[in-house]
Amino acid sequence: MSCSSLLPSVERFSRRRWVVGAGALALAGLAPLTQANTSRQPLSVRGYTLQPRGEGQMRFFGLSVYTARLWVSDGFDPARHAAVPLALELAYARNFTGRDIAQRSLQEMKRQVPIDQALEAKWTSNLATVLPDVKPGDRLLGVHQPQTGALFLQGERVLGTVDDPLFSELFFGIWLSAATSEPALRAALVAKA
What we know:
Layout: H1 3-17, E1 33-34, E2 43-45, E3 48-60, E4 63-72, E5 86-92, H2 98-109, H3 117-130, E6 139-145, E7 149-154, E8 157-162, H4 165-176, H5 183-190
Helix pairs in contact: 2-3, 2-4
């Protein structure tokens, strides 16, 4: 079987298994590749001025899934990521549905703490409503607002919010918590450039 004939089945597997997003991902054993942060410009969003922190790329079987970039405010401490405002941008290299991104995000959030079924269903629905389907080249930005929740944008367009501080802490914990399934990507994101 040629490599080109394997690509469609890898793509189908990727869609089912690797749903990322303003959401989340990671299967054990995948090695994200670190890249230099190419944008050194501060990010201004919702009254926050955030500085670029780190960047990393998620790959699956050598195929790029997305590139993640982190911006943080003064006082950022990776061990207490939810204490200050921050933003995470995902630049996608694959097609994913918003529903799949939402479901995978919740799986990753449950790695950090147990989440009861009712709350899981509510948050999955919230995310599925907020997150669009994505294709290669699409960029989504999530903004953690301490004590408030999460804001999601695509370019200048506000996609929506999830007004729950616990949700926001766990959602961004997909990448920033010590319990992340992708510690190498976490290290790349929180490393000072």
